[in-house]
Amino acid sequence: MTTEHVKACKNIEACRAFRKKYFGGGGCVVQEKILKDSFDDNNEKTNNDNLVFEMGENGVMEIYHSEDTEKTNNLSTVPSVEEFDTDYKRTTEMVGEGAMRSYCFQRLQLLSSGFRTHVTMNAPMESLEQGNLLGTDFFRTLKIDNHIHAAGAPTAKQFVNFVADKLENESDTVISSDGKTLGEVFKDAGLDKDYLTIDAFNVLADYSVYQRFDNFNAKYSPFRMADLRRIFLKTNNHIGGRYFAELLKIVLNRHELSKGHVSGLELRLSIYGMERHEWDDLADWMLTDWEGGDFPGPLVSKSNRWMIQIPRLWRIFRMKPGRDGSGFNDMLENIFTPLFEATLYPERKPKLAEALKHIVGIDSVDDEGAPEEACGCQRPHMWTSPKNPAYWWQLYFLWANLEVLNSLRRAKGLNTIAFRPHAGETGNPLNLACTYILCESIAHGMNLDQQVSLQYLYYLDQVGMSCSPLSNNFLFRKIGDSPFLKFFRRGLNVTLSTDDPLLFHMSDDPLLEEYSVARATFDLSMTDMMEIARNSVLMSGFEEEFKETYLGKEFRKGVTFCDEHLTHVPLIRAKYRAEHLAIEHMFCALIAAGKANVVLDEMKTQFGLARDAHRKILFENMDEIPPSFPELGQL
Ligand SMILES: [Zn+2]
Q: Most buried pick, 214, 276, 343, 608, via CB within 10 A?
């Protein structure tokens, strides 16, 4: 053990402490008793007049007791943006230091070779054990598509067929406020039924989207007509988003009926923060029972939990007419004020209060490679520049406000909402340092292969990563260069997800296609496949009781406690993963505490004794000792 090792492990411990401080809530001060008492007389559906909230000067919501008229005692505080700036910068410095990079690289290499050894020795045992788990197999075991955008959820084929059906049966439906019918929109554009082909729609990803997020975004509009996107893929339009709901119900149906295999999903809908009424509109749409039509019911499904994605579109917000003097806080208030209102005063927003019970996470999305402006610790109301502020700065304010909201929801006994942004798809790999500190899990994470220290931290804390190799293949990273297999072998908490079946997948079962392509490309065994599926359930936002059904009653205790009959992951694999993770944690803690030499010496002594015992057994069973065998005591 050298001083470099000690330095590296101290850095690792310090980085992990930052994650506990932010994601773990250790740095937040919540006056729980006052909050809980204030909710005592309320039931879930009545307003809580004991508490008030307001957006603070620092861009984070503040909570006060209504009797605290001077507003001196904020009941739920989070570390300030200055503090986060310092901690985030310190993290990026530490992960960049040579000592930490060398240590992490070496440990990751050992994890890779350890896995290879495990599989070489135990693969037959794993498949035998798996074969003995009767009554289950890959198809009968749950997997969740943790990362799928609602507007891209139907496949191109489903979408084209749906539009063709509407054109045939609902050509007279008025679909815009100027009185135009669906038939007229197509006629005006010179499109007849012969144009209803996947190629003419031009929604499938092709060469034009590689490294081009703008072209990728344009693919959501069939025939490049924004009108068609608005009619079919939006929740707020002249028909109240009915087509979009019907289209998604086709997607949901396959999961609900377990067609082909057992699966669920976490569909993402957008809140842009452009207008204050967006959440109410969305809640309306989610809870509408489309009675009278051929649509079977509200868009709340047993197989789906909703995620909300917030695109980083400040530049668009700022450029809208009349917003010259607007600050970033205006956008933050559009995003968060309705959520605090619905949580504290559900009588004012009953639909949103109900919809929030079905929302499990907030995502932050957009092109990570897009230019952004350094903004220091600027307060949001001071950020009036039309340029997009830095990724870390935007993520801090989303996290901070969500954390305060969750402290209220926890006090009230309501579900909390996780922070699960897109990160490491492209752009600056250090974005992953920001999400490491702030977030429960991420979508993508491919850029972790450019930063070994962060990759090792993601391993140690088992930060969930919902990877989409097929999506990456079309947008940012060819599948042959995907680090997915490397991450998986090392034991990072990765799973597979589809991202946007509309653009990337050819079959009617995009999730199965994703697993199937990964199996062939990365040469995954069925044990590997089951581990990836189990990870998807673990990192999902589905309720604990739901997870108990699919992972076993004791799944919370760790992967070795997941029921192998339910997950179809043989215990030998789960034990391998758990033991190695524990060893890495212990090594790091011992080295950081300066105890490594003493412990290693003792381990060497014990190892020597064990070796001598093994040697004795060999000697006793061999007629002749090979001459190459070292002398006793020489080993
Ligand atoms: Zn995505």
A: 343
Question: What 8-state DSSP symbol labels residue 361?
Answer: E
What is the distance, to the nearest Å, from the Cα of residue 505 to the centroid of all Cα atoms in its chain? Answer: 20
Give CA–CA dist 478/324, Å, rounded.
Answer: 42
Please list the alpha-helical segments (H only) found in 294-444.
Answer: 314-319, 328-344, 350-356, 391-411, 431-438
- Beta-ladder partners of 54: 62
Question: What is the DSSP-derived secondary structure letter of residue 174?
Answer: B
pLDDT at site 40: 81
**Distance between CA atoms of 560 and 537, rounded to whole angstroms?**
15
Q: How many angstroms does the Cα of residue 471 sit away from the middle of ligand 1?
A: 8
Ligand 1 is a single-atom ion; what residues have CB below 5 A from it? 499
306 CB-near residues (< 8 Å, 6+ apart): 266, 267, 268, 269, 286, 355, 358, 359, 360
What is the rounded CA–CA span in Å between residue 613 and residue 192? Answer: 83
DSSP 537-549: HHHS-S-HHHHHH
Rounded-to-integer distance, Cα 204 and Cα 209, Å: 10
Tens digit of each residue's pLDDT (9 = 90 or more) over 565-615: 999 999 999 999 999 999 999 999 999 999 988 988 998 899 989 988 988
Under DSSP, is residue 269 helix (H, G, I), strand (E, B) or coil? strand
Q: What is the 3-state secondary structure (H, E, C) of 443-468?
A: EECHHHHHCHHHHHHHHHCCCEEEEC
How close is the Cα of 145 to the center of ligand 1, in Å? 11
Structure tokens at 387: 């340029």
Other Cβ atoms less than 10 A from the Cβ of 122: the count is 17
User: Looking at residues 506-528, what average pLDDT do you find?
Assistant: 96
pTM of structure: 0.95
Q: Which residue has the tokens 């028909």?
A: 239
Q: Is 444 a catalytic residue?
A: yes
User: Given 444, 505, 568, 580, which residue is catalytic?
Assistant: 444
